[in-house]
Amino acid sequence: xxxxxxxxxxxxxxxxxxxxxxxxxxxxxHRNIGDDYSNYRETKTWSIRSPFPEExxxxxxxxxxxxxxxxxxxxxxxxxxTDHQDVKYILRLYTKRSVVFTKGCEKCLLLSEISSPRVxxxxxDLGCPSLKKLKCDDEFDYCWCWCFPKHRVSHYxxxxxxxxxxxxxxxxxxxxxxxSSSFSFKSFENFPYTSKIDVYKMVELGFFYSGYGDTVVCHxxx
Length: 222
What we know:
Blueprint: E1 13-18, E2 23-27, E3 36-38, E4 42-44, H1 59-73, H2 87-95, E5 99-102, H3 105-114, E6 120-122, H4 159-174, H5 181-187, H6 199-204, E7 207-209, E8 216-218
Parallel strand pairs: 5-6
Antiparallel strand pairs: 1-2, 1-5, 2-3, 3-4, 7-8
């Protein structure tokens, strides 16, 4: 999903959707991309148009846009197919009651706002390393995400490759840490009805708060 915001985000946003342990969503810093796919192969992809045409950008902003296209991601400001106003609907449709993770406090706040009402958890709490430290196999040295010719060049940043790396880490390392008592207790800090449940008992039984409504999740079976 190629998503545009009025100004670039300060950080790259990686959104892990914990539904059936295989859905991943990412939004990139300057391109602001999100991808939702299962098992790394079956991809649902959208290219979201910018909220307004490039002509409304001032000169310095257009210079920045051009630099980013030529040096960072290979995607033009006016590229895209799906209306920007559909972003929230798409995110809510595909996350539903899933448990959502991202990396970084600012990212959690932003994604919580986009997918409101829900709590987004920080993937760093599970010990996820930086993307630079995660392995990217040779088969992902190029990007096949979009029909934008320049973006397919291997040296450009690609959120889909980032998602694949994060998903693999989550499947092999991060998922197991969801059962830790520290994470479970922290998750219930956001539960809206703590007076109606025994939090200690829920954690002892292996549950954590999903971050959505009053739904809790069993770590063992999902």
